[in-house]
Amino acid sequence: MTALAALIRRDIKISLRVGGGALIGVLFFLTVVVLMPFAVGPDLALLTRLGPAILWLGALLASLLTLDRLFTADHEDGSLDLIVMSRTPLELTCAAKALAHWLAAGVPLILATPVLGLLLNLNATATAAVALTLLAGTPALTFTGMIGAALAVTLHRGGLLLAVLVLPLSIPVLIFGVAASQAAITGPLSFGTPFSILCALSLVSLVIGPFAAAASLRHGLD
Amino acid sequence: MRLSGSGVRCVRGGREVFSGLDFAASAGEALAVTGRNGSGKTSLLRLIAGLLTPEGGSIGLEGGEGELTLPEQAHLLGHRDALKPALSVTENLAFWREFLGGEAFDLRECLAAVGLDHAAGLPAAFLSAGQRRRLSIARLLAARRPVWLLDEPTNALDTSGQAMFAALMGDHLARGGLIIAATHAPLGIAARELRIGGAA
Amino acid sequence: MTLIDLANPTRFLSLTARILPWLAAATTILLLVGLYQAAMAPDDYQQGATVKIMFIHVPNAWLAMFVWGVMSLAALGTLVWRHPLADVAAKAAAPIGAAFTFLALVTGSLWGRPMWGTYWEWDARLTSVLIMFLMYLGLIALWRAVEDPSRAARAAAILTLVGALNLPIIKFSVDWWNTLHQPASVLRMGGPALDRSFLIPLLVMAVAFSLLFVTLHLAAMRNEILRRRVRSLQMMQASRRSA
Predict the structure, then answer these.
(1) Considering chain A, what is the average pLDDT of its residues?
(2) For every residue of B173-198, which 3-state class applies, written as one string?
C-alpha cells in the first residue's frame, strides 16, 4: 500500500508542478465550451438545451487529451521499466496511476463545471446534475482511456491514433452521462435509471481498464 | 544465491540477436558483459530483468528471497535515469525507496554516499548528466536488492565518480550481492568477462 | 494431421494451397444458388422488391460480428500461446471484417432509403454497425502504426479483446439511446416472423458468405505469411551486408 500511495502522491505532485498537465486539461475544457456559442450562435435557449451535451463532450475530450502522457512519460525516462519490475502487481500500479490522473485532471473538470454552466445559462439543478454525472462518469473515461494510454507505449506515439482507438469505447459513458443530466433537467425519464447505469459503466471500466493496461504494458516494452 | 541462464535465445524485431547463451554468477561475484555494438548487451540485461521474454532457454535465480521473482529482487540501472525533473532530488529518491519497498535506508546517507548531499533540496532538472547518474546510483542504495543489473554504469561519470561507484559495487559484492554489468569500460572491480556476439 | 502440424506455417501454406480452389468453387456455387433463390423469392407486400437487399445485408451484418469473434480467438492465441500464426490470422481478418461491415452499412442504408426517405437514419442497428466499423478502422490503423509485426500483434490483440468486451455494452447503450429518442422502430429486419420463402435463401446466403470469408481469410493469411518471409529475407540480406 505504501508503494501505491507513494506513486499516487508522486503523480499528483508532478501534474500540479511546472510542466504538468492538470491545469491544461481545465483550460482546454474551458476553451471547448467557450467555442460552442460561436458555432451554434449566442442563442441562450438553444445553449441551455445543448448545455449538458456540450459540457460532457468537453470533459470527454479534455480527459482523453491529458491521458496521452499517462504511461509514455514514464516510458521515456525509464521509470516504467522499474515500475514493471517492482513487487507491486502491475494491475494495481495501473489502477493507482489512473486514480492519480483522475484526482489531478478529472476532479478539476468537475469543479470547473459550475462556472461553465453559468456561461451556458444552466440553472442550479442542471449544473448540479451535470457535475454529479461527471463525478460518476469521468472515472470510466479515465480507466477506459488508460488502455489507449498503455497502447501508446507500444505505438511510440499517442495523440490522434489514441483518440481514434478510445473514443468509440467511451460512447456508452457519453450516452448515459448526457441522458442522466437531461433526465434531471427536463424529464420525463427518471434520473436514477441512466445514472445507475453510468455508475455501473464506471465500475466495469475500473475492472477492465487496469487489466488491459497491465497486459498491454507487459507485452509492449522493448 | 546463483543467477544462471542456459541456452538463452533473444529475437528483437524478427532478427536474432544471440542464441545458445549460457552464463552464471554466484553471490559476491560480478559479471562484465562485453561485445560490440548491437551484440545484445542491453537486451541480455532486459531479459534478466524480465522486461523481455527469451525466445528460447531459461534464466533463473536460485537461493533468492522466498517467493520473490528474479525481477523483484533486482535493481536495473539503465541508460535512462528514471528521474522526474519536476521533483527535487530527495523527492525522486524518496519515491523510489517507498515504491520499491523492502529494506530501506536513510536518504541522507545514500545521497552522501554518491556525493549529492549538498543538492538534496534542488529540483532534479538542475542536475548535470553526471549528477543525474549519481542520483540513479543512490537509488540502488536506498532500497535493498541483491541483484544489480547495470547498463554502462560508468557513462557520464568522471574519474572520482567512477572510483566512488567502484567502491559501492565492492561493498555490494562483499555483502553477498551479485552484479551483472554491460560495459565497454573497465568497471574498477574484479569481474569475470562474458563476451557475447563473437569477437569485437 | 494434428492441430500442431497445422500451426506450422509451412504446413499451413501447403495445406491451404490444396484446399483453397475447392473452397473457392464451393463459395461460388453457393453464392449463385443463394442469389438465384433470392431473386425468385416473392416480393414483400409492404416493402416490395427492396426486401431482397436483406439477402445481402443480413449475412454481411452477421459476418461483421463473426469476424470480430474470429479475431478475438486469434487474439487469445497471440497473448496466451504467443503463436505467430495467430498474429497472422488476426491481421488478415481485420480488413476483411471491415469490408463486410462497410457492405452491411451500405446495404442497410440503401434498404432504409425507401422506408426513411433518407440514406441515413440514426437507427439503433445501423448506428451500432457504424461504431463497429470505426473500431475496425482503428484496429487496422493500429496494425499499420507499429513496424515490428509481433509487437503490433500483441497491441492489436489487447484492443481486439477490449473491443469484444465493449461491443455488447455499446450495443446495449445505443439501443437504449435509440428508444429514448425514437420510440417506434421504423424497420424490422429479420425477426422470428420470417416466412420460409425468405428464410431458406437467407440461410443459403449466410453459409455462402461465411465460406466467402473463410476463403478470403485463408488467402489473406497466405499472403501475410509470404509477406513476412520476404521481410525476414530482406532483413537477412541487410545484416549480411553490414557484417
Answers:
(1) 89
(2) HHCCCEEEEECCCCCCCCCEEEECCC
